[in-house]
Each structure stands twice: as C-alpha cells, then as structure tokens.
Write a structure and sequence with these properties.
Strand content: 15-25%
Radius of gyration: 17 Å
CATH class: Alpha Beta
Largest sheet: 8 strands, mixed
Strand order of the largest sheet: 1-2-4-3-5-6-7-8
Order of helices and strands: EEEHEHEHEHHHHHHEHEEEH
Number of domains: 1
CATH superfamily: Alpha/Beta hydrolase fold, catalytic domain
Distance between the termini: 31 Å
Structural class: alpha/beta
Helix content: 40-55%
CATH architecture: 3-Layer(aba) Sandwich
C-alpha cells in the first residue's frame, strides 16, 4: 500500500516501504517511478529479503507525487530529507542511499548538503568531465524547453547524448506519452549533473565521507567508466566495481545482492 510523506513545501511524496532492518532509500534516475519501473520494484523486494527496510518512492513530479514546474534539485533534496525523517527516530540516525544513473548524482548532492547518510551505492552515473561547462549548458537548454512547455522537445533534448536507437525506440513505444508527461521532473537530474562540474570534485565531495560503492556494468558506454573513475578519485572513501549489466540496466536479484553485501560489510 502506498504511503505518503509531506515535504517542506507541502508537496506529498508517495512511497512504498518493505522489509525490516537498516533503512535504504532508492533514488530513481531520469525516467523512473514506481508505476513505470518494474525492475526497481523487484529489486526493492529482493533487497528487503536481505534484511533491510527499503523505500522506493516516486520523485517529485512523477507517478503519485504530482508537483508543478519548476522542479528543482533543492526541492528534491528536501523530499529526501522528509523521507529520512520518516524512516529514522533521531536527528543523527542515517540511511543508505542507492542512486541509479542521474539518481546517483542527486544522492551525491543530498549527501554533500548534509543529509544523514550511512552508505552510498551508485550505478552508472553519467558525469561529464570534472570542471567542464557541458552540464551547465545542458541544464540551460533543458530549462528553456520546459519553460516553453515543449515537453516532447525537453525529453528529446535530455536524451540527445544517448545512443540514437534508445530515443527512436522510446518514441515508437506506448511509454512515450508517459515519458513526455514527466519532462519537468528531469530538471533536478540535469541540475545535479551540472552541480558535479560547479567546482573541483575533490572540493565538492570532501565532506562526503560515507563509504561509497560505484558500480558500472560489464558492458557499458565509455562515459560510465570514466565517470566512475572520476568519482572514486574525488571522494575520500569510494571504491569501484563492475557487475553483470549492459545497456545501462541491471538484473534485480544480482543488484540487490551486490547492494546488500556492501551495506552489511
């Protein structure tokens, strides 16, 4: 049954909670929410079986967490703060975060903002070069299209650097209208990616001392490997590992086991 928590500005955030044990929050990437992402739902179930309280939530502006544009990274972090408060009893209690794709850059921004995080697990964070300007330009282009109400153009713009067959397949899929409808919620994804270039990463992430596992698929795009290496080089307590995965996706049981092993280590 869906639960709800109220964020700082009054927005209701919908989530599923399963299992009992140390809390873990799953942060979806660009096109993910509970009703549109059976892979993460299955992974949440498997991770709960390993002895964790697992929260899988609809990010602001998606699924059962409706919100008006603009949708910002700061709001998204406050949504996470509200979820953490729901899961913990004291101000010093921490949760683990799993971030998928751009959900991982949101997790990083949340940890850097001081949210109580015990451990971090990332899968294929699509970061551009450390110190580059591409992220800011990308964010500006996305915001321009969202502000103009060109939601289809915003999704096309967001996917412009992905393999062309991914966009072509999406546009031919019955899922395309759902993807277009969630276009305003892509802004925090782009904003978090731009943030990773806003200062040297060693400085940005110096205070993020939680043990961090950075995962990439055994078959992946070149950008994912270089991004993972950049994260490990820039964080004080991060390690990198490959998992059986391809095309920016993973197998739920294997991912749940990988996360569980790291969290209990």
């Amino acid at each position: 049954m869906t639960d709800y928590v109220t964020s700082a500005d009054g927005t209701r955030i919908a989530f599923d909670r399963e299992g009992a044990g140390p809390p873990v929050i799953l942060i979806g990437g660009a096109m993910q929410f509970r009703g549109f992402d059976p892979t993460t739902r299955e992974m949440a179930h498997e991770l709960a079986r390993h002895g964790f309280t697992v929260v899988n939530y609809d990010r602001r502006g998606r699924g059962e967490s409706p919100a008006d544009a603009p949708i910002t990274l700061a709001q998204t972090i406050e949504d996470l703060r509200a979820l953490i408060g729901e899961l913990t009893e004291g101000a010093d209690d921490a949760v683990a975060l799993f971030g998928n794709s751009s959900g991982a850059s949101i997790a990083l921004a949340a940890a850097a903002a001081g949210l109580p995080v015990s451990k971090l697990v990332f899968f294929e964070v699509p970061l551009d070069d450390d110190g580059g300007s591409g992220g800011a330009e990308y964010l500006a282009g996305l915001r321009e299209r969202i502000a103009a109400g060109d939601h289809e153009g915003a999704v096309e713009f967001y996917m412009r650097d992905m393999p062309s067959e991914w966009l072509a397949g999406a546009k031919q899929s019955p899922a395309w209208p759902i993807m277009v409808a969630m276009a305003p919620s892509l802004e925090p994804d782009a904003e978090s990616l731009a943030w990773t270039q806003s200062a040297p990463r060693v400085e940005l992430w110096r205070g993020v001392t939680a043990p961090t596992l950075v995962l990439i698929g055994e078959e992946t795009l070149p950008i994912m490997a270089s991004a993972a290496q950049s994260i490990v080089a820039s964080m004080p307590n991060a390690e990198m590992r490959s998992v059986p995965a391809s095309n920016h996706s993973w197998e739920p049981k294997r991912m749940a086991l990988t996360i569980a092993e790291f969290l209990v280590d």
